[in-house]
């Protein structure tokens, strides 16, 4: 397999993972009202909304800026400290835009760029490390959002995937 086709397959797989993690998080966000979106289990813990702000900051810093070359203007503490309930659109539209920029930055990477060392958040990482780290970070917080949503909604939670066949794990 030529390196270009390998890079193409890897970037498609990474983008599929990114989209799936985002889909799971949005499936949860769509089930929450604004109060639930900003509620914190305790004062020192995050709300779903704060996690969304944090994911936007992380993806912008590590991928849009770190490998895409845009200016890094992240304010990480604000992602967690925000307590003013932003309107849903104010919260989600920037993250949707960031995800488009992330995909474009990933698709623009060449083999040379994926192995080139760059400095992101004080760490020396390759382009590949920056991408994988940030996408796995998104997946982890997406699972956290699923857990938080299930705790908030209890029996009212609607699963994003329900097995339909025995092969998928449905009861027989």
Task: Give an overview of the whole structure.
- A two-stranded antiparallel ribbon has the order 1-2.
- The mean pLDDT is 95.
- α3 packs antiparallel against α7.
- The protein has seven helices and two strands, in the order ααααααββα.
- The protein has helices spanning 3-29, 34-38, 48-65, 76-81, 88-107, 111-115, 127-153, and strands spanning 117-120, 123-126.
**Mean pLDDT, all residues:** 95
Q: What's the CATH first level?
A: Mainly Alpha
Task: Output the number of helix runs.
Answer: 7
Radius of gyration: 18 Å
Q: What sequence of helices (H) and strands (E) makes up the elements?
A: HHHHHHEEH
Tell me what portion of residues adopts beta-strand conformation. Answer: under 5%
Domain count? 1
Structure summary, number of beta strands? 2
Output the CATH homologous superfamily. Answer: dinb family like domain
The side-by-side strand order for the widest beta sheet comes to 1-2
Annotated CATH topology: Four Helix Bundle (Hemerythrin (Met), subunit A)
Largest sheet: 2 strands, antiparallel
Helix content: 55-70%
Which structural class should the secondary elements be placed in?
Answer: mainly alpha
Q: Which blocks of ≥5 consecutive residues have pLDDT under 50?
A: none
Query: So what's the overall shape?
Result: flat
Q: Could you tell me how far the N terminus lies from the C terminus, measured between alpha carbons in angstroms? A: 42 Å
CATH architecture: Up-down Bundle
């Amino acid at each position: 397999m030529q390196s270009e086709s390998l890079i193409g397959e890897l970037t498609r797989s990474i983008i599929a993972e990114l989209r799936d993690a985002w889909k799971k998080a949005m499936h949860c966000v769509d089930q929450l009202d604004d109060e639930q979106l900003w509620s914190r289990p305790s004062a020192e813990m995050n709300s779903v909304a704060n996690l969304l702000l944090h994911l936007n900051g992380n993806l912008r810093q590590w991928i849009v800026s770190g490998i895409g070359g845009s200016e890094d203007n992240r304010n990480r503490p604000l992602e967690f400290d925000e307590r003013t309930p932003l309107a849903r659109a104010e919260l989600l539209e920037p993250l949707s835009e960031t995800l488009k920029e992330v995909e474009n930055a990933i698709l623009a990477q060449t083999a040379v760029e994926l192995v080139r060392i760059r400095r992101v958040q004080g760490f020396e990482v390759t382009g590949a490390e920056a991408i994988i780290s940030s996408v796995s970070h998104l997946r982890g917080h997406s699972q956290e959002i699923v857990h938080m949503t299930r705790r908030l909604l209890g029996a009212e939670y609607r699963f994003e995937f329900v097995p339909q066949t025995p092969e998928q794990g449905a009861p027989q």
